[in-house]
UniProtKB/TrEMBL annotation:
Domain of life: Bacteria
Matching CDD domains: PYR_PYL_RCAR_like
Protein's name in the database: SRPBCC family protein
């Protein structure tokens, strides 16, 4: 199974970055405004509403406070995926920064270029959003 791993330095404390990542119901505000219009929560299920009216349904698998790690699995989305799960984990980096590690596992493997491009785009938005937050 292919994996895409992305490490992003964010010029904010691990506590600040984790606070945004762990807020699974505010994905559209705290991490990717404009990329996602709204986030709906129903128990462990999260539905991301996209700007074009489409949606992505995800299962929130874990929010681990001690490890600063959030795991989700896509149940229904836009790409023809047989499997898609991902995790975000926050690590201290330097005196006041953080590294956000995003690992995505998926099938089929021929979607790797699309998944890599999406992870690269969304990572840049996440970095900018968190660094620009008050």
């Amino acid at each position: 199974m292919p994996s895409v791993r992305k490490e992003v330095f964010i010029d904010r404390s691990p506590e600040q970055v984790w606070d945004a990542v762990r807020d699974v119901g505010a994905f559209h505000v705290r991490l990717v405004p404009g990329y996602t219009e709204n986030t709906l929560l129903d128990g462990y299920e999260r539905t991301l509403i996209l700007p074009d009216g489409g949606s992505v349904r995800e299962l929130i698998v874990a929010v681990d406070e001690e490890e600063r790690r959030m795991v989700f699995a896509v149940k229904e989305g836009r790409l023809p995926l047989l499997h898609h799960n991902a995790s975000f984990q926050v690590f201290p980096d330097g005196d006041s920064g953080s590294t956000l590690v995003w690992i995505t596992d998926f099938l089929p493997e021929d979607l790797a270029p699309q998944i890599q491009a999406q992870v690269d785009r969304v990572s840049a938005v996440i970095k900018q959003t968190i660094e620009n937050a008050n």
